[in-house]
Amino acid sequence: MMTQQTQYATEGDNSVYAQPDGRVVPVVTRAGQEDTSTMQSGQCVRVSGVSIQHTPATKIWFGQVSNEPGYRSFPHHHGEAETGGYVLRGHGRIYFGEGYKDYIDMTAGDWVFVPPFMPHVEANMSTTEELVWLTARTPENIVVNLEDVDDSELEGFRRA
């Protein structure tokens, strides 16, 4: 049995990432220097650590997303972007489907993938603890807010 091995280029043109002196180096976003002008969705706050807004990155958005206790996002989707997330702390719920009647719960240590163009609502199910997760998106932080839905339509959700 023969296995196919993926071949990766070991060299390429990284000139698009060059600093003014021509050098290509890693870029570190220091704590407190993250970009906070990212697109928001209700009380769902996104902070960019790696994005086109403040690094040479052109094909990825990576940041932290949080909801205060008992808060949620507006219904939204992320356009063409594939989205991956990792829950750092808290109890989150993603509502989706017709009328946002379907949902999946997440807690610390869980990973989630949200397909492109999928309308959803991100909710903090705790009324006492913050929900915080890391999110990566390609190509960037696309957020398309949709018409809001009443809290009563989201099974089990309650405000703080």
Describe this structure in words.
There is one protein chain. With 160 residues, this protein is mostly beta strands. Helices cover 0% and strands 34% of the residues. It is built from no helices and ten strands. It has strands at residues 44-50, 61-67, 76-77, 82-89, 91-96, 102-107, 111-114, 120-124, 131-138, 144-145. Strands 1-2-9-4-7 form a five-stranded antiparallel beta sheet, with no helix packed on it.
Largest sheet: 5 strands, antiparallel
Q: What is the helix content?
A: under 10%
Strand content: 25-35%
Radius of gyration: 18 Å
Major β-sheet strand ordering: 1-2-9-4-7
Count up the helices. 0
Structural class: mainly beta
Rounded average pLDDT: 89
Counting DSSP E segments of at least 2 residues, the number of strands comes to 10
Shape: globular
Outline the secondary-structure elements.
Layout lengths: L43 E7 L10 E7 L8 E2 L4 E8 L1 E6 L5 E6 L3 E4 L5 E5 L6 E8 L5 E2 L15
Antiparallel strand pairs: 1-2, 2-9, 3-10, 4-7, 4-9, 5-6, 5-8
